[in-house]
Amino acid sequence: MKKEVNDKNIVIPEPSFGSNLTSIILDLEKLRTKRLGGNVPPYIFFQLKDIFQILETLGSARIEGNNTTLSEYVEKIIDKNLTDENDDEIKNLENAIKFIEDNTDEDTKFDRAYISQIHKIITNNLTPPPNGEGSRYSGELRRHDVSIKKSGHKPPTHILLPDYFDNFIKFVNQECKEQYQLLMVAIAHHRFEFIHPFDNGNGRMGRLLNYAFLIKLGFRVKQGRLINPSSVFYTNRDQYYDMLSCADSLKADDLLAWCEYFLKGLKNEIEKIDHLLKKVYVQNDILLPMLKIALEKKYITEQEFKILTYLVKKDDMCMKSEELSKFNINNSKDKSIFMSKLKNKKMITPTSENGRIYTIYFANNYLLRSTMQILKRNGFISDFLNNDY
Predict the structure, then answer these.
(1) Which of 26, 66, 202, 266 has the fewest Cβ atoms surrounding its Cβ within 10 A?
(2) Dist. CA 186–CA 259, nearest whole Å
(3) Which residues contact 159 (CB under 8 A, 6 or more apart)?
(4) Domain 279-385 is in which class?
(5) Which residue has the higher pLDDT, 234 or 5?
(6) 5: pLDDT confidence band, cut at 50, 70 and 90?
(7) What is the pTM of this model?
(8) How far apart are alpha carbons 383 and 387 in whole angstroms?
(9) Is the predicted pLDDT of residue 168 greater than 70, yes or no?
């Protein structure tokens, strides 16, 4: 077993000029400052955002051993049957993401209260270890020593933990030149897992903090960007643990290797997901193929397929009941009845509260099944989310 490392200071190593890591950082800087020119209507974008939040939270939970598959979770969403503790763990992560989005901007200070609140949210109403994913000391630093699965690293003793944690907080709140800010995010994730400040939930916490750090650095999730940072890790969970373990040496080369692994995965994920900001791509590569699958699986009728296809192909991706005349539904009462059926089946939703203009709804009903199939076919969903352990 490795000796405990007593160095509490956190240092950002300097990547060599012209290295792969330097190129990755430059590419990410372009993505960070890139003006988001996506033309997907907001009422479509936010449904996609809800879906990627499912992928983010489920992926993070499964890394820690939650055995709920994506297919199972989708069926539970459709049936409104989120009842067991595995589901509660995932819902807690969704609530934590909402907290982060509501309470994080470029001026946010990541103090102990902020981090503790996230820990309280993710462990809420969960059974404490060793039998569950909750905490004996929710929101508080651990009061005993711990070990890390699949790692020879022994985290700092709980007696020294307050000093390590205070140094971590100073590190993530320091003024940092732009060229080092993304390195700081990568190093912060490793260091959080290195000190393991809580009795449980450290992996989930570290990945949620990635999300918070990226929001602070200007990756504009509130202004139309989708981010699923945990996919960097769950795409190959063993590699994630191996890279973390290697960086535990705290040697500059090993830390730089970790940074390259982390930031390369993040760059690839952002570039991939940015396709979903393009309306033509969402129409032709996601929603129209999704409707074909839904028809083949008999989730929708032929008539529903034709009307929803018409809606998706429109430039604004929405329609009024009057447009049902195009489908030989001419009587006003019949139009009203048919639109009510679509609303009751949650296949359409108003584009504004109490509005009479409707768009397709695919994030919380039977269409979610075929949407997930298409996202997987197009490379947005890892096999890890459905594989049994």
Answers:
(1) 26
(2) 5
(3) none
(4) mainly alpha
(5) 234
(6) very low
(7) 0.88
(8) 6
(9) yes
Q: How far apart are CA 12 and CA 188, in angstroms?
A: 10
Contact 208, 122 (CB under 8 A): yes
Tell me the average pLDDT across 188-213: 94
- Spatial distance between the Cα atoms of 333 and 103, rounded to a whole number of angstroms: 46
Distances (CA, A) of 68 to 74, 91, 177, 207: 10, 12, 41, 19
Q: Are 182 and 217 in contact (CB under 8 A)?
A: yes
Specify whether the CB–CB gap between 192 and 209 falls below 8 A: yes
Token pair listed for 223: 């202004």
287 contacts: CB under 8 Å, gap ≥ 6: 312, 360, 362, 371
Classify residue 241 by its DSSP letter.
H
Helices (H), the chain: 20-33, 42-63, 70-79, 85-103, 112-122, 161-173, 178-195, 202-216, 231-234, 237-247, 252-273, 279-281, 288-296, 302-313, 332-344, 367-377
φ/ψ of residue 99, rounded to 5: -60, -45
The C-alpha atoms of residue 283 and residue 40 are separated, in whole angstroms, by: 9
Q: Where are the domains of the chain?
A: 20-42+81-275, 279-385
Task: Tell me the CATH architecture of domain 20-42+81-275.
Answer: Orthogonal Bundle (1.10)
Q: Is the pLDDT of residue 304 over 90?
A: yes
Q: Which residue has the tokens 């992926």?
A: 59
